[in-house]
Amino acid sequence: MKLGVFLTLFRKYSLEEALSMVASQGLQTVEIATGGYVGNHHLNPHRVLESRHEIDKVKSLLDRHQLEISALSCHGNPLHPNPEIARQHDDDFRKSILLAKELGVSTVVNFSGCPGESEHSLYPVWITCPWPTDFSEVVNWQWEHKLIPYWKEMGSFAKENGVKIAVEPHPGFNVYNSETALKLCEIGGDHIGVNFDPSHLFWQLMDPVACILELKHKIYHFHAKDTGIHTKNVSVNGVLDTKSYRDVNNRSWVFRTVGYGHGTETWKAIISALQMVGYDHAISIEHEDGLMSIQEGFSKAVDFLKDMIIMENSGEMYWA
Prior knowledge:
This protein has 320 residues and is α/β, with parallel strands linked by helices. The mean pLDDT is 96. 44% of the residues are buried. Strand 5 (164-167), helix 6 (178-188) and strand 6 (192-196) form a beta-alpha-beta unit. The longest helix has 28 residues, at 133-160. The protein has helices at residues 15-24, 45-48, 52-64, 83-103, 133-160, 178-188, 198-202, 208-215, 231-237, 264-276, 294-313; strands at 2-6, 29-33, 68-73, 107-110, 164-167, 192-196, 219-224, 226-229, 253-256, 282-285. It is globular and about 55 Å long. The chain starts with a strand and ends in a 7-residue tail after the last helix.
């Protein structure tokens, strides 16, 4: 495995400056945003694809800093009921796949998308329980009329271009757990897999180790991000929480830098589980900790994970 970072963390800097900062920490990979909700500050696929010079320039920068791209990421909603948003996110997605092919990048990350409840919706609708039966009917409609046709097509598109798609299970979208992830993988074929992010599983009270062992070889990319659970708030309000991420004291859970939500033994077990299923791609640090600065969260995550990755590469496994 190789340790890297999701470069949106350094969106205020140019691509060259960001790569220099990453290389100075001894990391080996970068995940670069190319559209959707995460934007394309460092790498705009629509512009770069128009010029062989721009493609070669990106490759040269990576070579200079001895870094490789673990994935292009365009976390968006290509099934958004607003047709303009859906069109833009779908276009970003397809262009990201084409750019990945040109750059020799194996993987593109996205969400599954979430449609509305009908063709007349204005906003996405995420269903969390089966009753009243209207809810079950909506879920069935979303999969049959939107997700299945779209992901069959995208699975074929990815295969044609020799690129794998890593769909990130994320609440708010139709793929949010292991069961729905495997369902989408079956629909899309071998070129559809999973971007595994433990942070979205922790607060749903899922066990990341068990999920890794369930998903096995379908894990195509990995995000290193943690979640802190506020037990008192959960005990009175549960884990479904729509309060702002900035409302740290009153939320049931918040995203944390690795090691600040769950300890060393938990993360050692996660890394070992990845090793058990044969995952040998990037461990990509994603920092969304509202209690730490960019540099503090990044540096602490690197320090926390670096020894684990070194030991994993030596063949040693940890179990909690």
